[in-house]
């Protein structure tokens, strides 16, 4: 029996959990939180810190994630 690469297995899990764009955003939010990203609101003033990671969503169907460098 062939061994499945963990990256492929993770992608299949993500796709199975994401039958729509709304599900994909929700799944991505959870994965980003687990990876140390903080959710911010697009409509509020941001207080960003060097070396931190953030994300926001729009209309439950779009997600934007970014990291601020340490310098």
- The number of helical segments is 2
What composes the largest sheet?
A: 3 strands, mixed
Estimated helix fraction:
25-40%
Pattern of helices and strands: HHEEE
Nearest-integer average pLDDT: 94
Instruction: Please give the order of strands in the largest beta sheet.
Output: 1-2-3
Global geometry: flat
- Cα end-to-end separation: 48 Å
Extended strand count? 3
Tally of individual domains:
1
Task: Put the structure in a nutshell.
By secondary structure, the protein is α+β, with helices and mostly antiparallel strands.
Index terms:
71 residues, alpha+beta, 3-stranded mixed sheet, 35% helix, flat
Description:
The protein is α+β, with helices and mostly antiparallel strands and 71 residues long. It has one domain (6-67). The chain contains two helices and three strands; from the N terminus they run ααβββ. It has helices spanning 6-16, 21-34, and strands at residues 38-39, 53-58, 62-67. A hairpin with a 3-residue loop joins strand 2 (53-58) and strand 3.
Topology, element by element:
Elements (H helix, E strand, L loop, with lengths): L5 H11 L4 H14 L3 E2 L13 E6 L3 E6 L4
Parallel strand pairs: 1-2
Antiparallel strand pairs: 2-3
């Amino acid at each position: 029996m062939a061994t499945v690469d963990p990256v492929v297995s993770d992608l299949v899990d993500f796709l199975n959990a994401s039958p729509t764009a709304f599900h994909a955003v929700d799944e991505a939010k959870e994965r980003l939180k687990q990876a140390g990203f903080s959710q911010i609101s697009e409509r509020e003033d941001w207080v960003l810190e060097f070396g931190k990671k953030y994300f926001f969503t729009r209309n439950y169907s779009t997600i934007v994630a970014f990291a601020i460098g340490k310098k």
